[in-house]
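residues and backbone:
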Amino acid sequence: ELKKQESEHIYLPSSRSRSRTKGSEVGDRPLSIVMTMAEEKKDDDEAALFARRKGAIQTTWVAVGDSLGIEATRLFYERLFDQHPEVKPMFSDPDDMEEQAAKLLKTISVAVESLSDIATLVPILQDLGKKHAEEWNVQRNHYDAVGECLIWTLKTGLGDSWTEDVADAWSWVYGVIAKTMGDAGQEVLDSKSLNKTVEIEEQATDMSSLATAVEKTADYSTLPSIRSLIRSGVTSRDEIKLRPESSALLVIDIQKELSTIDINSPHIEYAKIAFPRMIENTSKLLAAMRTNRSRLEPKETGSEVIFTYIEALTDDSRDVSLDYKLSGAFLANLPGPSNPAQFVQGVEPIPGKDIRMPKTSCSVFMSTNIDYVLRNLNVEQLIICGQLTDQCVESACRDAADRGYLVTVAEDACAAQSPSDHLKGLHGMKGFSRQLSTKKILQELGQLK
């Protein structure tokens, strides 16, 4: 590049522009400055390449969404199962991939949206990689199979719009995603392998003590409280399963006033999937908790259901938080005693049985006496669902954890304003909770085999 500049006698930026004659371009400058110029040129080239790739990816992903939508992910799974049938056992129901297709569509959309914010995207991908390795034993070669089928799906969906530049951009971005998730997942796989080796060695050295340990951890009900388990040596949330007698379900802000889907939203497709899914899965959780509660004696605590929702104590909302008063017309003028909050059909409290707690702040722990009530009910485990994942749900999760409750977030019974907001919310709660699907929660509650 420097030789080219010399031969063309071009001007270079400096404190005072002047013509450069052949031979003076390098000779007049110290080597360190020449190297810096070369590095800056390299950085500029890489930035331009990134910008081109990002533009190609975001433009073509919109085109795929417009032409195929969720059908694109259905095509992907059909191709994946056809070309790589060995991955089928990783899916609970490979013949019904509707929900999984929606999840994949959302994940890719988040990755595409977050290309302008790599610092936020990387930890999300790392969490996904760890989860895939932990729950489904996903290995690096599986990412190769997924990449091959994803590129085929995009090429099929885009038709003539699939150019060499587009192919380069998508191959690049998937390579980054696969490496980030694969590296994080490999840490989990290595840890599992090491733990298994240690476990085998322990079994070989002392089978009797192992049997005693299994017996001790298999029946938590023999201990007086979950806190006793922690004192006795349990160090991971995942070791403590839900116990109906010490749990409560907290349903957050699922009310008609907050449940209108904006048809002009850029995330309308996400909303059409996420909101009905939240309602359906919350309804399943409510049914499970109420079934378990029906088996208890009168005045016996356990399997509690608590609804919290935004509603002022006064009709003019003068009692709401300062934050709400500064957050738009609706939050500054909440439903009140004369015009109470309305619940969504199918997700409604049963008067006299479920507990209702109107709130006037983001976190239910800040503007209600929920902590006092939970302790009176001997609740130690809190299952949380509702909206918005990255706002009121996350605030409740963090506050509950800080107050000593073991929190389980029903990740598919929560919703946000966009798929990226939902994933960011889950990421923000990761250190404060377990995050399980509704299906797994129902299994732990004994309501699903």
In short: The longest helix spans residues 164-205. The longest strand covers residues 406-415. The two ends are 67 Å apart (CA to CA).
